[in-house]
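In this section we turn from sequence analysis to structure. A common task in structural bioinformatics is to predict how a protein folds when a small molecule is present, because the ligand can shape the pocket around it. The inputs are simple: the amino acid sequence and a SMILES string for the ligand, here zinc ion. Study the lines below before reading on.
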Amino acid sequence: MTKETLNKIIKILTWLLRITEYLKKTNYGALDEKQDDDPRNVPVSAIVKSSKLPSEYINPDVFKTEAYNQKRLGICVATAQTSQMELLYPDKDFSVRFSYRMAKYIDYLKYKRNFEGTWGHTMARVHKDYGVATTKTRPENFDLPHWLYIKFNFTKQEIAEAKKYKIKGYVWAYTDDEIKLAIKKYGSVSTTIQAKSMWNNAKGNHRILLVGWNKRGFIFQNSWDEVKRGDKERKEQELLELPYSVKKWNSIAYIKSDADKKKIDNHIKKVEKKYKYFSAYEAKNINPKTMEMLDKARGFAGIPFVITSGCRTIQKNKQVGGKIDSCHLEKNKCSAVDIRVRNSQERWKIVNAGIKAGFTRIGIAETFVHFDSCKDTRHPDKVIWTY
Ligand SMILES: [Zn+2]
C-alpha cells in the first residue's frame, strides 16, 4: 500500500467517525434554538446580561487545539476573545486554545443549522467558568497540522493556573452607543461581522475585537492576514477601522471586577421585574402604558413577541420611512411598537391578542404588526390600517 492510499483511508475513517458522532447526538439543546429564532437585532435594547449555555458544550477538559492559523472554524473567536482577556489582565500572556468538543458543536451549528455566532458566547462562558491558560508550556510552532496540535493537551498545572484568570461575567451590547459605552467601561467588545463586509472575497462570519472608535467607525484588532498567524503575531497585529455601516451582532463585553458585576446584576434585577415577558431593555423608552398592554397581549398570544421597532428619534423615523406624526416618535411619548410577523398564523395570533389586550389602533404589514396607544385628535381611535 502506498503512503497516499494510507492517508486517504485515514481521512475517510476520520470523517466516518465525525459523522457517527453527529448522528449519535440529535438533540443539541435550547441555546441555538433561541438565538436562531430570535436574533434580537432590534433598535430598542441596551447592555444586557448573558443567557445560559448548556454545560456539556463548555468542558475544556477534553481535547485541546491551538489557534495556529485561521483555517480552523472558530479560531477568530478564540483569538479575539483571548485578546479581550489580555486587555483585562494586561501583564499576562495568554495562549489561544479551545476544546475539541466546542469545535464540534460549532461545526454542527455552522453546517447543520447554517448558523454562526454562538461561538462568541461559548468562548465567553469558558472564560467565565474555566479562565484562560498562559503560554508557558506550549510549543511555538504554528506550522504543525491540526491533528498534531490537538495532541498537545493542557497539563493539570495549566488547568489549575487558568482558573486564576477568569471573568466575573459578560454582557451583550446591541447598538453602537452601547458598544461604545461597553468599550469605555470594560476595555473592549468582541463582535461578529460578515467577513465580506470588510474583505471582498472572504466567506462566512468573522469575529473581531473592537477596542475603540473614531469619526468613521470602530477600531478593531483582526486575527488574520496573508500569512499564517499565531499568538505572537496576534499581539503585533495592526488595528483596522470598521465603518459604522457594517452590521455587528453578538457583541459581548467582559466584566472583571466584582463591583461592576454587582452593579450590573442589581440593575438587571431592578429593571427585569417590570414586565412579565419583556426585559426593561426591550421596553427601553417605550410608553409604559403601551408596554403593559403589549405584555398582556404577549400572554394571550402565547408566542414570542420580538419588538422590531419601538421608540424613534426624528432621524430614525425618517430613516425607516415612518409617518411624520408617527406614534413611535418621542414627541408622541413613544407609544407604538412593531412586532415581528413571519407567517399568517403568527399574524392572526398577534392581532387577536392585541385586540384582546385593548389595542384599538393597529397597523398590519407583511413582516410586522404595529400597535399603539396614541389617543388624540390627530390619531383616530378604533382603526386598522395596512401598509
Ligand atoms: Zn409602527
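Residues 3-24 form the longest helix (22 residues). As an exercise, try to locate the residues that line the zinc ion site and compare them with your own expectations.
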